[in-house]
Amino acid sequence: MFVWSKMSPVSKQSILEERFLGLAQTNAVITELPGKKRFRIEVYCDDKNDGQNLLNEFGGQLSKLKIKDWVKLNASSKRPPIKIRDRLIITDTDDPKEIKKICDRFEGRDVISIPAALAFGTGDHETTSTCLRLLVDLAKEHNKNNKEWSLCDIGTGTGILAIAAKILGSKMVDCFDFDSTAISIAKRNISRNQTSGIFIYEADLFEWEPKKKKCWDIITANIFANVLNANLSKIFNALAPGGNLILSGILREHENSVIESAQKTSLTNPIIYRKGKWVSMHYHKD
Ligand SMILES: C[S@@+](CC[C@H](N)C(=O)[O-])C[C@H]1O[C@@H](n2cnc3c(N)ncnc32)[C@H](O)[C@@H]1O
């Protein structure tokens, strides 16, 4: 494993985020340094040539990641637990003693453990946390009416939304991603959080065909706008009548294009949530 890293001015952050936290690149980590005008970007590469290409294109440094560092990266808890409404706590620790402490401290909430890894979805990104909050609200509504509900998470990354859905009471949870590393990490997280019964598989949304005309009550898709726009009609067909669609990961400048694509499938009047440069949308299918 090799790691390419570079310090950059904050003014370049959105460009680099878009370049590296987008579609195929789930192996990038951006670290903001409080009070500093610069941030660090690291991209983890299996192949030295990929790192070398980044070095040639952007400058910075390339180094070999020692196994010791890799273990440390996964083992140490670096950030405080994230609270999602009064229902969930997301922690990056996987130490059972630490998790027990967090459970005791936040009694009455379910704790989800998602250690830092080379997949997107640790809960601290606006696009994920908005999806989690919406999920908590929708689950509350379904559970209040004693209604069984199902969910499909498109582009699952670490599996965080699928795991949350299972914990929140979804009877049938499906999720997929086109990145095999994300799938292995999500499987590990599903097992760590004891949320068995989630159907997880590797697939590209562009080629995805839901089996046997399956429909879901909730679909979540935290993916870039261009991927959403090209696949919205397929997603719409996979949504049960009366179902809810949560779209996230949309940059503000792409907001209108997603609304237009949704209109073509007859999805209208989204509730829109804007956080920084990110937009999430909640649609209801009549
Ligand atoms: C922004 S992350 C979202 C991860 C997680 N669902 C969350 O909300 O934090 C987007 C994920 O979508 C996956 N992805 C991007 N394009 C895809 C496609 N065409 N088919 C399937 N997965 C895709 C990426 O690999 C990545 O894991």
Q: Please, could you describe this protein's structure?
A:
The protein has 286 residues and is an alpha/beta fold. It folds into 2 domains: 2-65, Alpha-Beta Plaits; 120-284, Vaccinia Virus protein VP39 (Rossmann fold, 3-Layer(aba) Sandwich). Helices cover 35% and strands 29% of the residues. The strands form 3 sheets. It has a 7-stranded mixed β-sheet with strand order 10-9-8-11-12-14-13, with helices on both faces. It has a 4-stranded antiparallel β-sheet with strand order 2-3-1-4, with helices on one face. A 3-stranded mixed β-sheet has the order 5-6-7, with helices on both faces. α7 (180-192) links the parallel β9 and β10. α5 (126-144) packs parallel to α6 and α8 (225-237) packs parallel to α9. The longest helix has 19 residues, at 126-144. It is globular and about 55 Å long. S-adenosylmethionine binds at residues 23, 26, 119-121, 127-128, 131, 153, 155-157, 160-161, 177-179, 182, 204-206, 222-223, 227, 249. Residues 23, 26, 119-121, 127-128, 131, 153, 155-157, 160-161, 177-179, 182, 204-206, 222-223, 227, 249 line the site of S-adenosylmethionine.
Show the helix and strand layout.
Layout: E1 2-9, H1 13-20, E2 28-32, E3 38-45, H2 48-58, E4 61-64, H3 67-75, E5 82-84, E6 88-91, H4 96-105, E7 110-113, H5 126-144, E8 150-154, H6 160-167, E9 172-177, H7 180-192, E10 198-202, E11 216-222, H8 225-237, E12 239-251, H9 255-264, E13 271-275, E14 278-284
Parallel strand pairs: 6-7, 8-9, 8-11, 9-10, 11-12
Antiparallel strand pairs: 1-3, 1-4, 2-3, 5-6, 12-14, 13-14
Helix pairs in contact: 5-6, 8-9
The structure holds S-adenosylmethionine (SAM).
